[in-house]
Amino acid sequence: MWHLACSVSTDKTVTDMESLDQKNVGHQTCPQDIHDVVKELKELKEEMKKLQKEKQVKQVAFSASLRDQGPGDIGPFDTQIILTFKRVITNIGNAYNSSTGIFTAPVRGVYHFDWTMKGYGDIPTGGGLFRNGELIFVAYEQQTSGWVTSSNAASLLLEVGDQVSVRQWEKTRVHDSQFHDTTFSGHLIFTM
Question: What is the rounded distance in angstroms from the CA atom of residue 85 to the CA atom of residue 114?
């Protein structure tokens, strides 16, 4: 807590500067000091906002499945596509965007991601985890008939603004149903 004291001498008996200086010991000149205090208060307020934001973004977790409801397939395609997981169950910190399928790191830290892909028949199923367009790991499965599931996981050091997504591998089919078999999840383990 700051205590500002401004003193203005109106005592006509004070005749020399030495006396005036002795009377003002412990007092500060107001105009400059008030500006300094206001500036420092603004800085402290900004620091408090930053700390509150950091506390909030330390809570980051999401979990989503491919379709909102009912069964359906995506693919096969000739190129990779970013999968948009529409049914969001959890999105603490709002770092996952269900319109784009992209998770954006709100704070520097280590994050853990996992994804599961379901498929069927003689068309393979698979998808890769990408960080800023770079392939990290792939989950891929193929068999001649029946249902297949592939999954994988990774822990990544992310910088603020790094983007993570799951891309469907080319020439694969991904299936989701009312049981929400194809999923993408992630959470912040710790900040750095």
Answer: 13
Q: Residues for the chain: how many in total? A: 192
d(CA 41, CA 54): 20
Query: What is the distance between the terminal CA atoms of the chain, rounded to a whole angstrom?
Result: 32
Between CA 178 and CA 116 the distance in angstroms is 15
Give the integer Cα–Cα distance in Å for 115 and 57.
22
Q: Does some domain include residue 2?
A: no
Long-range CB contacts (< 8 A, 24+ apart) of 6-10? 6/30
Torsion region of 190: left, alpha or beta (phi above 0 gives left; psi -120 to 50 gives alpha): beta
Task: Choose between 93 and 1: higher pLDDT.
Answer: 93
Q: How many CA atoms lie within 13 A of 31 on its CB side?
A: 1
Domain assignment present for residue 38? The answer is: yes
Strands (E), 28-101: 61-65, 72-74, 81-82, 87-92, 96-97
Give the pLDDT confidence score for residue 123 in this predicted structure.
93
Share of the chain above pLDDT 90, in %: 65
Each residue of 17-38: pLDDT tens digit?
444 445 544 555 556 788 787 8
183 and 130 housed in the same domain: yes
Which residue has 């770092």 as its token pair? 95
What range does the domain containing 122 cover? 60-191
Structure tokens at 192: 């750095």
